[in-house]
């Protein structure tokens, strides 16, 4: 594998679409959800963050992703949980995905905490998690109570039952399987997403696109820090707002 590449896919696009999304109801206890939310509250300031969509009128973020794998923070705090997720993913692969990777060495590529408010959605129906093997997705909020809308959608999944009924419910799927999320219509939807891949266990503050060797992405901030010092206070504040969470290839 060239060190700047993603690992080659182990499953064809067509075979990936034929795999089911496996439900793991009540995967997390309410105590574990409290621990994860507390960890997010305490650590998110130190982690990479990306506002994926924002309101055209107010500029408020509608979908914010916090990369809890920054510096492997989540990985160090919740190793047992990540091992449980991987064991469940491998079992789902053996039982339902054609056992295409259950013996492959995989590690967490990224741990993402998603916060989605009304209007936030992942609309692209052919979206998939390129470069990863398994995607593990856990609902942290209470559907119908903390939020409405925001249904997880897997085309051709074969039934209309919701994937997430209660907080703590999880799903696991082949990362190359298409999936999307309908717009949230009320409240705040929170999910934890872990992608496992054949690359190195990453510590960078984003979703790494480089399977091995030093990550080439670094905060744009690092490239312009000197010039920030030369700006007026107003210009610097505007630049800081612009730079927050943005990254660039070096
Ligand atoms: O929000 C979700 O349930 C899934 C999010 C997702 O697929 C992604 O961020 O790639
Ligand atoms: Fe995804």
From TrEMBL:
GO terms for molecular function: metal ion binding; oxidoreductase activity. Residues 103-199 form the Fe2OG dioxygenase domain. Keywords: Iron, Metal-binding, Oxidoreductase. Belongs to the iron/ascorbate-dependent oxidoreductase family. This is Fe2OG dioxygenase domain-containing protein.
């Amino acid at each position: 594998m060239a060190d700047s590449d993603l690992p080659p896919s182990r499953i064809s696009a067509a075979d990936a679409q034929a795999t089911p999304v496996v439900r793991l109801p009540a995967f997390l206890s309410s105590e574990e959800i409290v621990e994860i939310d507390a960890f997010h509250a305490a650590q998110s300031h130190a982690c990479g963050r990306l506002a994926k969509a924002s309101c055209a009128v107010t500029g408020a973020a509608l979908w914010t992703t916090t990369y809890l794998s920054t510096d492997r923070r989540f990985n160090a705090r919740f190793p047992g949980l990540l091992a449980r997720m991987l064991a469940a993913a491998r079992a789902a692969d053996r039982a339902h995905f054609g056992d295409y990777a259950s013996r492959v060495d995989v590690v967490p590529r990224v741990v993402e905490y998603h916060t989605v408010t009304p209007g936030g959605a992942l609309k692209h129906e052919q979206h998939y998690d390129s470069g990863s093997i398994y995607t593990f997705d856990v609902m942290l909020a209470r559907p119908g109570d903390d939020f409405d809308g925001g249904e997880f959608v897997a085309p051709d999944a074969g039934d209309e039952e919701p994937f997430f009924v209660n907080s703590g419910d999880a799903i696991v799927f082949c990362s190359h399987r298409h999936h999307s999320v309908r717009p949230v219509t009320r409240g705040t939807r929170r999910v934890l997403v872990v992608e496992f891949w054949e690359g190195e266990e990453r510590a960078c503050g984003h979703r790494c696109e480089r399977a091995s060797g030093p990550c080439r992405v670094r905060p744009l901030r690092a490239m312009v820090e000197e010039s920030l010092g030369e700006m007026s206070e107003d210009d610097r504040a505007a630049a800081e707002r612009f730079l927050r969470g943005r990254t660039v290839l070096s």
